[in-house]
Specification:
By secondary structure, the protein is α/β, with parallel strands linked by helices. Helices cover 35% and strands 22% of the residues. A 7-stranded mixed sheet has the order 8-7-6-9-10-12-11, with helices on both faces.
Length: 322
Amino acid sequence: MTEPFVHPATGRPLQRDGDRLVDGEGGEFPVIAGIPRFCELDNYTASFGRQWNQFRTTQIDGEGIDANVSSDRLFAETGWNADELGGRNVLEVGSGAGRFSRVLLQHTHANLFSVDYSSAVEANWRNNGALSAGRFHLAQASIYEMPFPDARFDKVLCLGVLQHTPDFEASVRALVAKARPGGEIVVDFYPIRGWWTKVHAKYLLRPITRRLPEERLLHLIDRHADSLIRLSNTLDRFGLGVLRRFVPLVDIKGTLPKNLSPGQLREWVVLDTFDMFSPRFDNPQRVVDVAAMFERAGAAVTFAGFVDHGTGQAAVVRGVKR
């Protein structure tokens, strides 16, 4: 049976043979827990695999939160209309636990092809595999070696990912390469707003925290979450909110959904704080620089700026493949 995947290096079509995909010429890739794997399982994204398998449903609309947080963010940042995606081939790169996979599967009739470099694919499949109806094709793969032909997709989406890759511009080139001529590419990323961007607890402490064992780091965050939440709220109450940037905690006021229950708030705080301090790479960019990367990669920029998606502002670049 021919699969919707190709050999990342040669482009040869793959077929299913038991618990592996093969190309008939010696190329083969394992299928583990129902998911094809096109990369080493132990890689620089291990912390993401841990967090998304532990916090599998936290950010899923209708499960971890009774609001359309992920849906609002996806459609605000992309500018897409759900109806226009019917029958379109959409590539989602860096899907994590599948918060946006869920939106695309539930709210559109797109054919969704999704990859993540971490074991978070297992959380995504548990969350969304039953919703696929043959439209969901998920694999574990690197952004630099995706198991799809170039010029294949009508839409390419990459949210919350690029700053965590080792080579930001090479990642942009990889995304643009997969879009067909006239296809659209949409990304968001951590922005550099000025010299003060990295004068922040995250960047001051990351040289230490990203080297800590994941279990120990997560334990430290969980242990101190309540006291740090109180400190953050106290600074706000006394008009000292500017000092919150030096508190080793996610920006509760500026980035988290509103109206979370106390238990939900704590869960989101632990998750997002771990997400701040654990990744191997964290490379924020200026919007103008990312727009220039799009142009160099062969995509005409249609939007470059900030988008308010309901729980904060995201730096977004959209482009169309020439």
